[in-house]
Design goal:
Layout: H1 7-18, H2 22-44, H3 47-64, H4 74-97
Length: 103
């Protein structure tokens, strides 16, 4: 969990974001974007890919907010999505790079 936000504040932001409060979601992005960007950069080892994947992750998180059940912290949920999405990105890139394009 980020040292920048308390658990109560995170929960409040998540609840508001789940109700489609754009400012609450923007705040969550502001808080967690650097950590997720660093994670995706470590995994992709490419700044452009990292930027693209990180943006896709936050879009996925926004659309998936109704599925967040709160059994873990928001960051734990976000982190899992980030890792899985980045792994899928890398697998897809590897298949395309090898000339195996799966449809």
């Amino acid at each position: 969990m980020s040292g920048d936000v308390s658990v109560v504040n995170e929960q409040e932001l998540v609840q508001r974001a789940m109700q489609r409060d754009a400012s609450a979601f923007e705040e969550l992005v502001r808080l967690y974007y650097p950590r997720i960007r660093q994670l995706t950069y470590r995994m992709t080892r490419n700044a452009d890919d990292s930027a693209e994947v990180t943006q896709d992750i936050f879009v996925k998180v926004y659309t998936g907010l109704p599925n967040f059940k709160g059994g873990s912290s928001f960051y734990t949920w976000l982190y899992r999505i980030a890792v899985n999405h980045t792994l899928n990105f890398l697998k897809k890139r590897q298949k395309i790079g090898a000339g195996i394009i799966m449809i």
